[in-house]
Amino acid sequence: MTNNELLLEISNMMDVKIGTLHQTMRDEMKEMENSLHGEITGLKSEMQSEMAEMKVDIRALKMQNENDIIPRLQNIESCYVDTSKRFYMELGQMEDLKQDVDVLKKVVAEHSERLQKIS
Q: Is pLDDT above 90 for 1?
């Protein structure tokens, strides 16, 4: 066998080995692709299920806000606004009462002094 024939035979053997290796790698990549596709499909299904649950929860929260929380907050707000207006309106009366009490203190103090002088 000549060198060329030997090289040709080695080349043929390498082609067979590389071809087999190439096909094995293709098969493994196809398996990995199928496996990943299955996992992605499973995750997508899980996410869709969780999204549906979240939508239900969000809808329930919106209903609770609309039916329970917002009316209560509006009631609390109206009470505070009414009370604030009443306090503001009576603020002038408080100032008048304060002045009257100051005058009464002075008069009582003067009368106390006069009564002590008389006794």
A: no
* Tokens (6 digits) for 16: 């067979």
Q: Which helix (H) or strand (E) holds 107?
A: helix 70-118
Distance CA 109, CA 119 (A): 16
Within 13 Å and on the Cβ side, how many CA atoms surround 79? 6
Q: C-alpha 117: how far from its chain's center?
A: 77
**Cα→Cα distances 27→13, 34, 55, 83, Å:** 21, 11, 42, 80
**In the numeric block, which tokens belong to residue 35?**
């496996």
Contacts of 1 (CB under 8 A, 6+ apart): 9
Which of residues 88 and 64 earns the better pLDDT score?
64
Rounded-to-integer distance, Cα 37 and Cα 31, Å: 10
Query: Scanning the structure block, which residue is given the tokens 């299920």?
Result: 49
Q: Give the span between the Cα atoms of 90 and 84, in whole angstroms.
A: 10
Helix, coil or strand: residue 5: helix
Q: Average pLDDT of 91-95?
A: 84
Encoded tokens for 30: 């196809």
